[in-house]
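User: Structure please.
Assistant: Input sequence and predicted structure:
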Amino acid sequence: MIQNTKCECGHQNPPDTLLCESCGKPQTEIPENAPLEMRYDGMARRSQKRNPNPLDMVWNFFSSVKIAIIIIIITLIGAAIGTIYPQGNTAEYYKQTYGWGGELYYKLGLSTMYDSWWFVGLLVMIGTSLVICSLDRVLPLYRALSKQQIRKHPMFITRQKTVYTGPIEGNAEQWVQELAGHLRRRRYRVHTDGTALLAEKNRFSRWGPYINHIGLIVLLLALLARTIPDWKLEETIAVRDGETVQVPNTNYYVKNEQFTVEYYDQDELPDRLKNQERPKLYKTEAVLYECVESCGEPGIEPVLEPVIDYDITVNHPLAYKGVKLYQIGYDDQPMLKAVKPVIEDKQSGQVYGPFELPMKNPQTEFTVGPYSLSLKAQYMEFALNDEGDPVTLSRDPKAPAFIFIVKGPGIDASGEPYMYFPLQKDKERFSQDQINRTLASKIEIRVDGMENVSYSAYTSYLLIRVDRALTYVWIGLGICMLGLLMGAYWHHRRIWLRVDDGVLSLGAHTNKNHFGMRSDVAWALAQMKIDVEKEKLDNGGYNS
């Protein structure tokens, strides 16, 4: 059945239009004296389309505010579950720290929940809902407000929430022009058409909710951008005095020129803390470098250029182009820095070396007497996982181990692997000789005396934080706040009137604060010597 959408004023309206786009006459039957439905001025919305096709059904799903609220609630519940335990740790950590609950938490994938496909999917659905909800409403609203006609149908005027009808004296056009002047004093934008008038102010406030939606979309996109590699990083590194360490996943390197700790004097401490060493200030005199050549190439020393010097203290991070380095702690326990091992030929008893072997960033090729060593693997804190495979537990040399391919006298020409533990306790703990088997009977790599072992004094712990999406998060929040302010502190007010045969018909509408709208109408009528009671301006109050 074809719907007749032509109004008696001659305007052809789109299907499902509730109020004529031109004169405002209702296109469907409404209860007697009931105020008109003025959302979008009765414009047709796509989500209200009859006989929707499959694409319309998807549109209708995401344009539903109820569906959007349900998705948001599910997302909030998921986000809350993700805060039960810290995110991003290993299975061993959850099992040892939180027991069976932590182990279950890890197995369910909740340890990386914010990066999971289903949580990201929920965020995408919220964003889709925001876009479609906005388009479904803002386009009809824009059409309605941009095509407003001055002379409206009497039924449109008298079915507003604020209404006045009554006789006027004198020339109708002059009366309308005089009223227009008074309304302009109230900052209304006034348009007249003979004996008809349209006064409007604060139309911009109608766009507040949709600007708020734009801000939320920007915020969601910023949160999703955090899943992009290199957009978000939060990692702790340890830098010993005089050491230069690469900032993970960046081309930056940080050098600890010197770490300093200042302690409180005893007379500065309360009695309960007397005779204790309490740090007052600890800082890292840091230099941040940027790699400009040979970055990340194994065995080649990168070319670094200094970009900033800064003393990092608690709550005063080094910040440069989105990278921030926070001082979060220190360690005054000695840590292995380098060793100078030798190679002993067990057949002849000849000893070759020593050679320099730093714990961090060692070279990959060594020549020691007749022997050549190629570094194939390095573990800073050697351990075996549940499958028996070698892993490193941290970046600090707490239990260092090196795997070399050794070539030389009495050794196969293709070389043989040799695992070397610099610390004696680790040699015994992991049975170095048993691991090396045949080669252990031919050569031995060892350190002769503590004079060939060097330790660094302080270790500075720095938190590396990179959040390139944070700027867009703040932009999104700022746009949201702008939209909230627009919608909360300003109200869209409109007044329509027409004079027919000396009888005034006036109707007014506002999206918020009906009492303020009623006061404006009462004030305007009072300027025209028409005294009214504000309470009787509600629909049906004045009907003379």
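The CA atoms of residues 228 and 350 lie 55 Å apart.
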